[in-house]
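Hey L., structure's done. Input below.
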Amino acid sequence: MVHSATPSLSTDTLDNIPVHLPPELLRTIFALATDKKFNLTQDFTNDDRIRLSHVCSSWRSVLLGMKELWSDMVIDLEAHPRILAVASRFLSRADGVPLSISVRMNGAANYAPRDPSADEFIDKIILPYAAFTQSLRLYVPFRYISMLLTLPFALSFPILESLSLRQASYGILSQTAIPTTPHLSFPRLHTFEFGARLPEHKSLLEVPQLSFIQWTQITTLMIRRHIAAKTAYDILATCTGLRTLWANLNSIDPDERARLYGSPGLYLPHLERLHIRFCTSMGFSLFLSLLNLPSIRDLALKETDGNGLGWSSVLDDFLLNRCGSHLENIFISNSRYDDELEAVVPGERQFFLQKHALTLRRLSVSCLPLTGGQTVRQLISGEMCPQLEALSLNLCPIDDPFEQLDYVLSAVKDVRSEGRQPPVKDLYLYNLCLHPTINKAISTRFDSQLRKIRKCGWRNFVSHIYDCSSCAHDPQVFESDWFGYSA
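Output:
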Protein backbone atom coordinates (compact mmCIF):
# COMPACT_ATOMS: atom_id res chain seq x y z
CA MET A 1 0.00 0.00 0.00
CA VAL A 2 1.29 3.35 -0.97
CA HIS A 3 0.74 6.16 1.49
CA SER A 4 0.92 9.72 0.20
CA ALA A 5 2.03 12.32 2.67
CA THR A 6 0.68 15.85 2.64
CA PRO A 7 3.41 18.30 3.52
CA SER A 8 2.60 20.40 6.59
CA LEU A 9 2.59 24.18 6.23
CA SER A 10 4.39 26.32 8.73
CA THR A 11 2.70 29.26 10.42
CA ASP A 12 4.96 31.66 8.52
CA THR A 13 3.90 30.08 5.24
CA LEU A 14 0.23 30.42 6.11
CA ASP A 15 0.70 34.06 7.00
CA ASN A 16 2.15 34.75 3.56
CA ILE A 17 -0.72 33.17 1.61
CA PRO A 18 -2.94 35.96 0.26
CA VAL A 19 -6.58 35.77 1.33
CA HIS A 20 -9.07 37.03 -1.25
CA LEU A 21 -12.51 37.72 0.15
CA PRO A 22 -15.43 37.81 -2.27
CA PRO A 23 -16.46 41.34 -3.33
CA GLU A 24 -19.94 40.90 -1.82
CA LEU A 25 -18.42 40.27 1.62
CA LEU A 26 -15.98 43.14 1.23
CA ARG A 27 -18.81 45.52 0.37
CA THR A 28 -20.64 44.50 3.53
CA ILE A 29 -17.51 44.97 5.65
CA PHE A 30 -16.68 48.35 4.12
CA ALA A 31 -20.24 49.59 4.58
CA LEU A 32 -20.06 48.73 8.29
CA ALA A 33 -16.52 50.04 8.77
CA THR A 34 -16.96 53.51 7.29
CA ASP A 35 -18.99 56.49 8.44
CA LYS A 36 -21.93 57.39 6.28
CA LYS A 37 -20.70 60.96 5.90
CA PHE A 38 -17.38 61.64 4.23
CA ASN A 39 -15.89 64.59 6.14
CA LEU A 40 -13.39 66.49 4.04
CA THR A 41 -11.48 68.18 6.84
CA GLN A 42 -7.73 68.80 7.20
CA ASP A 43 -7.11 65.15 8.10
CA PHE A 44 -9.48 63.60 5.55
CA THR A 45 -6.72 61.24 4.40
CA ASN A 46 -7.27 59.37 7.67
CA ASP A 47 -10.85 58.59 6.72
CA ASP A 48 -11.44 54.84 6.61
CA ARG A 49 -12.56 54.80 2.97
CA ILE A 50 -9.27 56.46 1.95
CA ARG A 51 -7.08 54.22 4.10
CA LEU A 52 -8.84 51.04 2.99
CA SER A 53 -8.50 51.98 -0.68
CA HIS A 54 -4.70 52.01 -0.25
CA VAL A 55 -4.46 48.44 1.07
CA CYS A 56 -4.48 46.69 -2.31
CA SER A 57 -5.87 47.03 -5.81
CA SER A 58 -8.76 44.62 -5.23
CA TRP A 59 -9.94 46.53 -2.16
CA ARG A 60 -9.61 49.80 -4.03
CA SER A 61 -11.66 48.42 -6.90
CA VAL A 62 -14.46 47.39 -4.54
CA LEU A 63 -14.42 50.73 -2.71
CA LEU A 64 -14.52 52.76 -5.91
CA GLY A 65 -17.48 50.68 -7.04
CA MET A 66 -19.44 51.48 -3.86
CA LYS A 67 -21.03 54.70 -5.10
CA GLU A 68 -22.95 55.29 -1.88
CA LEU A 69 -19.68 55.74 0.07
CA TRP A 70 -18.92 58.90 -1.93
CA SER A 71 -22.41 60.41 -2.10
CA ASP A 72 -22.74 62.04 1.35
CA MET A 73 -20.01 64.65 1.79
CA VAL A 74 -19.21 67.47 4.23
CA ILE A 75 -16.66 69.92 2.79
CA ASP A 76 -14.67 72.16 5.12
CA LEU A 77 -13.67 75.23 3.10
CA GLU A 78 -10.77 75.97 5.43
CA ALA A 79 -9.25 72.48 5.17
CA HIS A 80 -7.05 73.19 2.14
CA PRO A 81 -6.79 75.86 -0.60
CA ARG A 82 -7.69 73.24 -3.23
CA ILE A 83 -10.32 71.43 -1.18
CA LEU A 84 -13.08 72.05 -3.75
CA ALA A 85 -11.07 70.38 -6.51
CA VAL A 86 -10.45 67.40 -4.22
CA ALA A 87 -14.13 67.23 -3.28
CA SER A 88 -15.21 67.35 -6.91
CA ARG A 89 -12.97 64.41 -7.74
CA PHE A 90 -14.40 62.34 -4.88
CA LEU A 91 -18.00 63.26 -5.77
CA SER A 92 -17.43 61.96 -9.29
CA ARG A 93 -17.07 58.49 -7.78
CA ALA A 94 -20.76 58.57 -6.79
CA ASP A 95 -21.46 58.40 -10.55
CA GLY A 96 -25.15 59.33 -10.69
CA VAL A 97 -26.19 58.34 -7.15
CA PRO A 98 -28.28 61.06 -5.40
CA LEU A 99 -25.88 63.36 -3.54
CA SER A 100 -26.00 65.01 -0.13
CA ILE A 101 -23.51 67.90 -0.11
CA SER A 102 -22.67 70.16 2.84
CA VAL A 103 -20.19 73.00 2.43
CA ARG A 104 -19.23 74.94 5.54
CA MET A 105 -16.79 77.11 7.40
CA ASN A 106 -15.78 76.34 10.97
CA GLY A 107 -17.42 79.51 12.26
CA ALA A 108 -18.91 82.83 11.26
CA ALA A 109 -16.50 85.66 10.55
CA ASN A 110 -16.54 89.20 9.19
CA TYR A 111 -14.13 88.11 6.53
CA ALA A 112 -13.93 85.21 4.12
CA PRO A 113 -10.87 83.28 2.95
CA ARG A 114 -9.59 84.22 -0.51
CA ASP A 115 -9.26 80.57 -1.45
CA PRO A 116 -11.25 78.76 -2.56
CA SER A 117 -13.12 81.38 -4.54
CA ALA A 118 -16.85 81.62 -5.15
CA ASP A 119 -16.23 81.04 -8.88
CA GLU A 120 -14.46 77.78 -8.10
CA PHE A 121 -17.33 76.75 -5.81
CA ILE A 122 -19.80 77.20 -8.68
CA ASP A 123 -17.55 75.54 -11.26
CA LYS A 124 -16.39 72.56 -9.19
CA ILE A 125 -19.39 71.74 -6.96
CA ILE A 126 -22.59 73.35 -8.24
CA LEU A 127 -22.50 73.05 -12.03
CA PRO A 128 -21.17 69.46 -12.39
CA TYR A 129 -23.49 67.97 -9.77
CA ALA A 130 -26.69 70.05 -9.85
CA ALA A 131 -28.55 67.28 -11.66
CA PHE A 132 -27.66 64.69 -9.01
CA THR A 133 -27.85 66.72 -5.77
CA GLN A 134 -30.71 65.74 -3.47
CA SER A 135 -29.63 67.77 -0.42
CA LEU A 136 -27.51 70.94 -0.42
CA ARG A 137 -26.47 72.62 2.84
CA LEU A 138 -24.35 75.78 2.67
CA TYR A 139 -22.80 77.63 5.60
CA VAL A 140 -20.41 79.66 3.50
CA PRO A 141 -19.06 83.17 2.84
CA PHE A 142 -21.78 85.54 1.69
CA ARG A 143 -20.44 85.87 -1.85
CA TYR A 144 -20.93 82.11 -2.42
CA ILE A 145 -24.65 82.47 -1.70
CA SER A 146 -24.96 85.71 -3.64
CA MET A 147 -23.31 84.23 -6.72
CA LEU A 148 -25.47 81.10 -6.60
CA LEU A 149 -28.70 83.10 -6.35
CA THR A 150 -27.78 85.48 -9.18
CA LEU A 151 -26.41 83.14 -11.83
CA PRO A 152 -26.77 84.73 -15.29
CA PHE A 153 -27.87 81.45 -16.89
CA ALA A 154 -30.54 78.82 -16.24
CA LEU A 155 -29.69 75.98 -13.87
CA SER A 156 -32.01 73.23 -12.70
CA PHE A 157 -31.71 70.98 -9.65
CA PRO A 158 -34.25 68.35 -10.75
CA ILE A 159 -34.05 66.07 -7.69
CA LEU A 160 -33.10 68.58 -4.95
CA GLU A 161 -35.44 68.16 -1.97
CA SER A 162 -33.61 69.98 0.84
CA LEU A 163 -31.79 73.34 0.63
CA SER A 164 -30.02 75.26 3.41
CA LEU A 165 -28.53 78.73 2.81
CA ARG A 166 -26.62 80.29 5.72
CA GLN A 167 -24.01 83.01 5.41
CA ALA A 168 -20.76 82.82 7.40
CA SER A 169 -19.52 86.31 6.57
CA TYR A 170 -21.12 89.73 6.41
CA GLY A 171 -23.33 90.69 3.49
CA ILE A 172 -26.86 91.79 2.64
CA LEU A 173 -28.90 90.51 -0.26
CA SER A 174 -29.62 93.52 -2.45
CA GLN A 175 -31.46 94.03 -5.70
CA THR A 176 -28.31 94.64 -7.73
CA ALA A 177 -27.29 92.09 -10.35
CA ILE A 178 -30.59 90.22 -10.08
CA PRO A 179 -31.72 88.41 -13.24
CA THR A 180 -34.97 89.75 -14.68
CA THR A 181 -36.35 86.21 -14.52
CA PRO A 182 -35.34 83.52 -12.01
CA HIS A 183 -32.70 81.24 -13.47
CA LEU A 184 -32.68 78.61 -10.72
CA SER A 185 -35.19 75.78 -10.69
CA PHE A 186 -35.96 73.44 -7.77
CA PRO A 187 -39.08 71.51 -8.84
CA ARG A 188 -38.96 69.02 -5.93
CA LEU A 189 -37.82 71.32 -3.11
CA HIS A 190 -39.82 70.80 0.10
CA THR A 191 -37.34 71.57 2.92
CA PHE A 192 -35.79 75.04 3.11
CA GLU A 193 -33.50 76.57 5.74
CA PHE A 194 -32.64 80.24 5.37
CA GLY A 195 -30.00 82.18 7.29
CA ALA A 196 -28.92 85.08 5.08
CA ARG A 197 -29.26 88.77 5.90
CA LEU A 198 -32.05 90.67 4.15
CA PRO A 199 -32.50 94.40 3.60
CA GLU A 200 -34.33 96.11 6.45
CA HIS A 201 -38.13 95.87 6.25
CA LYS A 202 -37.90 93.29 3.45
CA SER A 203 -40.08 90.20 3.90
CA LEU A 204 -38.68 86.76 3.11
CA LEU A 205 -41.53 86.26 0.65
CA GLU A 206 -40.58 89.45 -1.20
CA VAL A 207 -36.89 88.67 -1.86
CA PRO A 208 -36.34 88.59 -5.65
CA GLN A 209 -33.43 86.16 -5.31
CA LEU A 210 -35.82 83.60 -3.77
CA SER A 211 -38.54 83.93 -6.39
CA PHE A 212 -37.67 80.45 -7.66
CA ILE A 213 -39.15 78.86 -4.51
CA GLN A 214 -42.61 77.39 -4.87
CA TRP A 215 -43.81 78.29 -1.38
CA THR A 216 -46.97 76.19 -1.57
CA GLN A 217 -44.93 72.97 -1.82
CA ILE A 218 -42.60 73.74 1.11
CA THR A 219 -43.31 71.38 4.02
CA THR A 220 -40.39 72.26 6.33
CA LEU A 221 -39.15 75.83 6.80
CA MET A 222 -36.38 76.94 9.20
CA ILE A 223 -35.59 80.66 9.42
CA ARG A 224 -32.35 81.43 11.26
CA ARG A 225 -32.53 85.23 11.02
CA HIS A 226 -35.04 87.26 13.00
CA ILE A 227 -38.17 88.18 11.09
CA ALA A 228 -41.21 90.33 11.84
CA ALA A 229 -44.25 88.67 13.38
CA LYS A 230 -46.33 89.82 10.40
CA THR A 231 -43.84 88.10 8.07
CA ALA A 232 -44.26 84.88 10.06
CA TYR A 233 -48.03 85.27 9.77
CA ASP A 234 -47.75 85.80 5.99
CA ILE A 235 -45.51 82.73 5.66
CA LEU A 236 -48.05 80.56 7.49
CA ALA A 237 -50.80 81.94 5.27
CA THR A 238 -48.80 81.40 2.05
CA CYS A 239 -47.15 78.01 2.70
CA THR A 240 -50.36 76.01 2.71
CA GLY A 241 -48.56 72.65 2.85
CA LEU A 242 -46.26 73.57 5.74
CA ARG A 243 -45.77 70.84 8.35
CA THR A 244 -42.80 72.26 10.27
CA LEU A 245 -41.87 75.87 11.02
CA TRP A 246 -38.87 77.12 13.03
CA ALA A 247 -38.71 80.91 13.28
CA ASN A 248 -37.15 83.71 15.32
CA LEU A 249 -39.40 86.73 15.75
CA ASN A 250 -38.38 90.32 16.30
CA SER A 251 -39.92 92.19 19.21
CA ILE A 252 -43.65 92.63 18.68
CA ASP A 253 -43.71 96.34 19.47
CA PRO A 254 -46.77 98.62 19.15
CA ASP A 255 -46.12 99.21 15.42
CA GLU A 256 -45.91 95.48 14.76
CA ARG A 257 -49.02 94.82 16.83
CA ALA A 258 -50.84 97.40 14.71
CA ARG A 259 -49.88 95.40 11.59
CA LEU A 260 -51.28 92.22 13.17
CA TYR A 261 -54.52 93.69 14.46
CA GLY A 262 -57.41 92.87 12.18
CA SER A 263 -55.63 89.96 10.48
CA PRO A 264 -57.97 86.99 10.06
CA GLY A 265 -57.24 83.87 12.07
CA LEU A 266 -55.28 81.11 10.35
CA TYR A 267 -56.57 77.54 10.28
CA LEU A 268 -53.47 75.39 9.66
CA PRO A 269 -54.57 71.76 9.23
CA HIS A 270 -51.16 70.45 8.11
CA LEU A 271 -48.84 72.10 10.65
CA GLU A 272 -47.45 69.46 13.02
CA ARG A 273 -44.33 71.12 14.43
CA LEU A 274 -44.03 74.77 15.50
CA HIS A 275 -40.92 76.22 17.18
CA ILE A 276 -41.10 79.98 17.72
CA ARG A 277 -38.56 82.14 19.55
CA PHE A 278 -39.89 85.47 20.80
CA CYS A 279 -37.48 88.31 21.58
CA THR A 280 -39.64 89.33 24.53
CA SER A 281 -43.00 88.35 25.95
CA MET A 282 -44.47 91.57 24.56
CA GLY A 283 -47.20 90.81 22.05
CA PHE A 284 -46.70 87.05 21.88
CA SER A 285 -50.27 86.37 23.02
CA LEU A 286 -51.64 88.42 20.09
CA PHE A 287 -49.62 86.36 17.62
CA LEU A 288 -50.80 83.06 19.13
CA SER A 289 -54.42 84.21 19.16
CA LEU A 290 -54.32 84.24 15.33
CA LEU A 291 -53.37 80.54 15.04
CA ASN A 292 -55.53 77.43 15.05
CA LEU A 293 -53.48 74.20 14.98
CA PRO A 294 -55.68 71.10 14.82
CA SER A 295 -52.82 68.72 13.90
CA ILE A 296 -49.98 70.10 16.05
CA ARG A 297 -47.75 67.46 17.67
CA ASP A 298 -44.61 69.34 18.66
CA LEU A 299 -44.90 72.85 20.14
CA ALA A 300 -42.00 74.96 21.46
CA LEU A 301 -42.48 78.58 22.51
CA LYS A 302 -39.05 79.98 23.40
CA GLU A 303 -37.79 83.45 24.28
CA THR A 304 -34.55 85.40 24.19
CA ASP A 305 -34.33 87.76 27.15
CA GLY A 306 -34.54 85.08 29.84
CA ASN A 307 -37.59 86.46 31.64
CA GLY A 308 -39.91 83.82 30.26
CA LEU A 309 -43.24 84.26 28.54
CA GLY A 310 -45.18 84.10 31.78
CA TRP A 311 -48.40 82.18 32.21
CA SER A 312 -51.59 83.86 31.11
CA SER A 313 -55.17 83.03 30.29
CA VAL A 314 -54.33 83.53 26.58
CA LEU A 315 -51.59 80.88 26.70
CA ASP A 316 -53.85 78.51 28.58
CA ASP A 317 -56.64 79.09 26.06
CA PHE A 318 -54.20 78.49 23.19
CA LEU A 319 -53.15 75.07 24.51
CA LEU A 320 -56.68 74.10 25.43
CA ASN A 321 -58.76 75.42 22.54
CA ARG A 322 -56.43 76.21 19.61
CA CYS A 323 -54.30 73.05 19.64
CA GLY A 324 -55.76 69.75 18.49
CA SER A 325 -55.75 66.51 20.44
CA HIS A 326 -52.42 65.17 19.15
CA LEU A 327 -49.82 67.10 21.18
CA GLU A 328 -46.83 64.92 22.07
CA ASN A 329 -44.10 67.46 22.90
CA ILE A 330 -44.62 70.76 24.73
CA PHE A 331 -41.87 73.22 25.65
CA ILE A 332 -42.91 76.63 26.94
CA SER A 333 -40.42 79.12 28.31
CA ASN A 334 -42.63 80.36 31.12
CA SER A 335 -40.05 80.50 33.89
CA ARG A 336 -41.74 83.43 35.58
CA TYR A 337 -45.21 84.26 36.85
CA ASP A 338 -46.90 87.37 35.58
CA ASP A 339 -49.80 89.33 36.99
CA GLU A 340 -52.38 87.47 34.94
CA LEU A 341 -51.50 84.27 36.77
CA GLU A 342 -53.43 85.31 39.83
CA ALA A 343 -56.49 85.99 37.70
CA VAL A 344 -56.62 82.39 36.47
CA VAL A 345 -58.29 79.80 38.64
CA PRO A 346 -55.48 77.29 39.46
CA GLY A 347 -57.58 74.27 38.55
CA GLU A 348 -58.25 75.64 35.08
CA ARG A 349 -54.56 75.56 34.24
CA GLN A 350 -54.76 71.80 34.45
CA PHE A 351 -57.37 71.47 31.73
CA PHE A 352 -54.83 71.51 28.88
CA LEU A 353 -52.95 68.66 30.58
CA GLN A 354 -56.14 66.66 30.85
CA LYS A 355 -56.95 67.28 27.19
CA HIS A 356 -53.55 66.04 25.97
CA ALA A 357 -53.07 63.43 28.70
CA LEU A 358 -53.12 60.38 26.43
CA THR A 359 -50.67 61.75 23.84
CA LEU A 360 -48.06 63.76 25.81
CA ARG A 361 -44.54 62.28 25.80
CA ARG A 362 -42.35 65.29 26.68
CA LEU A 363 -43.53 68.18 28.86
CA SER A 364 -41.64 71.31 29.89
CA VAL A 365 -44.12 73.78 31.36
CA SER A 366 -42.43 75.09 34.46
CA CYS A 367 -45.32 76.94 36.12
CA LEU A 368 -47.53 73.95 36.76
CA PRO A 369 -50.89 74.41 38.48
CA LEU A 370 -50.51 75.17 42.17
CA THR A 371 -52.56 72.27 43.51
CA GLY A 372 -50.51 71.22 46.51
CA GLY A 373 -48.27 68.94 44.49
CA GLN A 374 -51.16 66.91 43.11
CA THR A 375 -50.27 67.66 39.49
CA VAL A 376 -46.60 66.73 39.99
CA ARG A 377 -47.57 63.46 41.64
CA GLN A 378 -50.04 62.64 38.86
CA LEU A 379 -47.44 63.34 36.17
CA ILE A 380 -44.63 61.37 37.81
CA SER A 381 -46.86 58.39 38.55
CA GLY A 382 -48.33 58.26 35.06
CA GLU A 383 -51.84 58.66 36.43
CA MET A 384 -52.45 61.75 34.31
CA CYS A 385 -50.18 61.17 31.28
CA PRO A 386 -49.39 57.45 30.93
CA GLN A 387 -47.12 57.99 27.88
CA LEU A 388 -45.01 60.76 29.47
CA GLU A 389 -41.27 60.01 29.11
CA ALA A 390 -39.64 63.37 29.92
CA LEU A 391 -40.65 66.04 32.44
CA SER A 392 -39.04 69.38 33.29
CA LEU A 393 -39.63 71.01 36.68
CA ASN A 394 -38.37 74.52 37.31
CA LEU A 395 -37.83 74.91 41.04
CA CYS A 396 -36.67 78.53 40.79
CA PRO A 397 -39.92 80.42 41.44
CA ILE A 398 -41.12 78.03 44.12
CA ASP A 399 -40.88 79.18 47.72
CA ASP A 400 -39.87 75.74 48.93
CA PRO A 401 -38.10 73.60 46.27
CA PHE A 402 -37.67 70.80 48.81
CA GLU A 403 -41.44 70.43 48.99
CA GLN A 404 -41.53 69.99 45.21
CA LEU A 405 -38.84 67.31 45.41
CA ASP A 406 -40.82 65.60 48.16
CA TYR A 407 -43.77 65.41 45.78
CA VAL A 408 -41.55 63.66 43.23
CA LEU A 409 -40.27 61.11 45.74
CA SER A 410 -43.74 60.57 47.15
CA ALA A 411 -45.09 59.79 43.69
CA VAL A 412 -42.30 57.28 43.07
CA LYS A 413 -43.00 55.59 46.39
CA ASP A 414 -46.71 55.29 45.60
CA VAL A 415 -46.05 53.83 42.15
CA ARG A 416 -43.53 51.29 43.40
CA SER A 417 -45.89 50.21 46.17
CA GLU A 418 -48.19 49.12 43.35
CA GLY A 419 -45.40 47.01 41.83
CA ARG A 420 -44.69 49.19 38.80
CA GLN A 421 -42.17 51.78 37.62
CA PRO A 422 -42.92 55.44 36.83
CA PRO A 423 -43.20 55.99 33.05
CA VAL A 424 -40.97 59.10 33.20
CA LYS A 425 -37.42 58.29 32.09
CA ASP A 426 -35.85 61.77 31.93
CA LEU A 427 -36.30 64.32 34.72
CA TYR A 428 -35.04 67.88 34.28
CA LEU A 429 -34.66 70.05 37.39
CA TYR A 430 -33.69 73.71 37.52
CA ASN A 431 -32.89 75.16 40.91
CA LEU A 432 -31.95 78.60 42.17
CA CYS A 433 -30.18 78.37 45.51
CA LEU A 434 -27.40 79.90 47.53
CA HIS A 435 -23.85 78.84 46.80
CA PRO A 436 -22.65 76.06 49.16
CA THR A 437 -20.05 78.40 50.64
CA ILE A 438 -22.86 80.79 51.65
CA ASN A 439 -25.46 78.33 52.88
CA LYS A 440 -23.96 74.89 53.25
CA ALA A 441 -26.94 73.45 55.13
CA ILE A 442 -29.41 74.18 52.32
CA SER A 443 -27.00 72.90 49.69
CA THR A 444 -26.39 69.68 51.62
CA ARG A 445 -30.10 69.07 52.06
CA PHE A 446 -30.78 69.68 48.38
CA ASP A 447 -27.99 67.33 47.30
CA SER A 448 -29.41 64.68 49.62
CA GLN A 449 -32.79 64.93 47.92
CA LEU A 450 -31.17 64.71 44.51
CA ARG A 451 -29.33 61.52 45.47
CA LYS A 452 -32.64 59.94 46.39
CA ILE A 453 -34.13 60.97 43.04
CA ARG A 454 -31.14 59.60 41.11
CA LYS A 455 -31.65 56.22 42.76
CA CYS A 456 -34.98 56.01 40.96
CA GLY A 457 -33.11 55.08 37.79
CA TRP A 458 -33.95 58.20 35.78
CA ARG A 459 -31.62 60.15 33.60
CA ASN A 460 -31.33 63.41 35.50
CA PHE A 461 -30.42 66.83 34.16
CA VAL A 462 -29.86 69.15 37.13
CA SER A 463 -28.80 72.76 36.68
CA HIS A 464 -27.66 74.68 39.76
CA ILE A 465 -27.84 78.44 39.30
CA TYR A 466 -26.35 80.28 42.22
CA ASP A 467 -26.96 83.71 43.70
CA CYS A 468 -28.34 85.63 40.71
CA SER A 469 -32.08 85.31 40.17
CA SER A 470 -31.83 86.78 36.66
CA CYS A 471 -29.54 83.90 35.66
CA ALA A 472 -32.11 81.38 36.82
CA HIS A 473 -34.06 81.82 33.61
CA ASP A 474 -31.22 81.64 31.10
CA PRO A 475 -32.99 80.18 28.05
CA GLN A 476 -29.82 78.49 26.82
CA VAL A 477 -29.63 76.45 30.03
CA PHE A 478 -33.16 75.17 29.56
CA GLU A 479 -32.92 74.55 25.82
CA SER A 480 -29.48 72.96 25.61
CA ASP A 481 -30.61 70.30 28.10
CA TRP A 482 -34.10 69.78 26.74
CA PHE A 483 -33.42 69.83 22.99
CA GLY A 484 -29.74 68.87 23.02
CA TYR A 485 -28.86 72.23 21.46
CA SER A 486 -29.62 75.92 21.86
CA ALA A 487 -30.69 77.70 18.70
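Residues 1-9, 337-345, 465-473 have pLDDT under 50 and may be disordered. The chain is about 30% helix and 20% strand.

-- N.
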